[in-house]
Amino acid sequence: MLDEVTPPTDEPTRIATPKLENLTFQPKKNTVLVSHGRPPWYGEDGHRISDAFVVGIAGGSGSGKTHVARQIVRALGSIPSVVILSQDSFYKHHTDEELALAHASAFDFDHPDSIDMPMFASCLADLKSCQQSNIPIYSFTTHQRLEETQYLYGAAIIIAEGIMALQDPGLRELYDLKLFVQCDSDLMLARRLKRDVAERGRDVDGILEQYLRYVKPAYDNYVLPSQRHADIIVPGSNNTVAIDLICTHIRRKLLEQSHHFRQKMAIPHLYASPSGTVIPECKVEDLDLTILPQTRQLQGIFTILRSQATSRQDFIFFVDRLSTLLMEYSLQYLPYAPRTVTTPVDATFAGKALSVKYVCGVSILRSGGALERGFRRVLNDVPMGSLLVQSNTSDGDGEPLMLHVMLPVCVRKRHMAEEAWVFLLDAQIGTAAAAFMAIRILLDHGVKAEHIIFVTFLVARGGGVSVLRRAFPGVKIVTAGVDDIMQEGWLNHSREGEENLPGRQVWAMVPGLGQIGDRYYL
């Protein structure tokens, strides 16, 4: 149950809804494949406690490395997001002299020195440590690395494949499992001929000349000797048994990395802390929240929004009004610098101006979208991104799953993210599971905790916000109100004839605002 997502150049990673019947693979090798989303990779303290699982696949040109990688993905079935990372993207930038040789089929692309191994290892290390990476794009038609890059993030499993994938010791240190694809040399040549003619526009004479001059010697001298580093030798064809063994091992390792703590976040004072003591119920003043002044106007808005009888038209109007008030109040946390201007009567005025290089908004779909109109009214012409974090309903544990990541450029590029200020928007913080994951995603990209301003309509004092504050004390939380109670319940999805199926544990904020996304959009 996987969809393949191959983002356009410098476009965000998009994670789609699984459709088994539509499973296809594009010629582009660097791909993101997803099924039911990625579960938490961090603990209750907010720190990363599990890396992505990395598989290295080496073998001769045309041995079937990419095919084996895709067989593994298909056989794994319903799994978190997977990245297939190709060594072909990391060919070095060529000079004019090297380009002339390449077009004459006289450049050795099969020597280890032709590949930028340090960059390959650096990008792979970033992805393994749950950070974003911007992968170079190489054109086999022009024999040149392009200026554009491809943004990748969010993989629970990374499959790195290439002829030299096991040759470099720096790469080998990053692998959790090392495979070598063994294939008959005649079959490898036949596959290479077919591929290079169909996909890379080469002529047969040039392919054969390059094969005999460079490819075969490189295989004998560098590729084949690297198989001694492999954990498993995989046949290039008829390899179903080997694929099953590999997938069983990967599933077991992923299961060992799994951890669940949403229940403890939802109502933390009912559970013991790691030291064994019961966590006391927090007071509002201990949560370090920025709460809008509780004016009569605000009380009137909340009265309308909380009422079940409020029409959808009125609900939308007052949600937009409240989000505008929240955003205006939140601007106090952005940095300002002195600025002197001349007034229409030629007088000078010493005022303030925003002093921030990059600012953007990121909404947690779908209820976070209810704050976007207010955000736009206050901060016009700034980029907007989104995250989709949903509860895991298939297993009934309610753990958050990362299903969609679409972030502005100033967050996707690490050197910009370190200077970016991000307004993170969600309608409420109840269990805080989605908020926790969203903040962790921004931190993975290099955004400073002190530069994250979380804007929300409501916070549940008895919910997971206390855990959130302990994990991320630098994040500012601006809210219009605080409710006291998180109410635990069970949602039964059983259909006729399935009465004995277990329900799903849910938590509701009381008195709350109900399902804000449904009330706003439906």
UniProtKB/TrEMBL annotation:
Pathway(s): Pyrimidine metabolism; UMP biosynthesis via salvage pathway; UMP from uridine: step 1/1
EC number(s) given by UniProt: 2.7.1.48
Residues covered by the Phosphoribosyltransferase domain: 293-488
Domain of life of the source: Eukaryota
InterPro entries registered for this protein in UniProt: P-loop_NTPase, PRK/URK, PRTase-like, PRTase_dom, Uridine_kinase-like
GO terms of molecular function: ATP binding; uridine kinase activity
Keyword vocabulary terms for this entry: Kinase, Nucleotide-binding, Transferase
EC supergroup of this enzyme: transferase
Residue ranges annotated for the Phosphoribulokinase/uridine kinase domain, each copy included: 54-236
Listed name of the protein: uridine/cytidine kinase
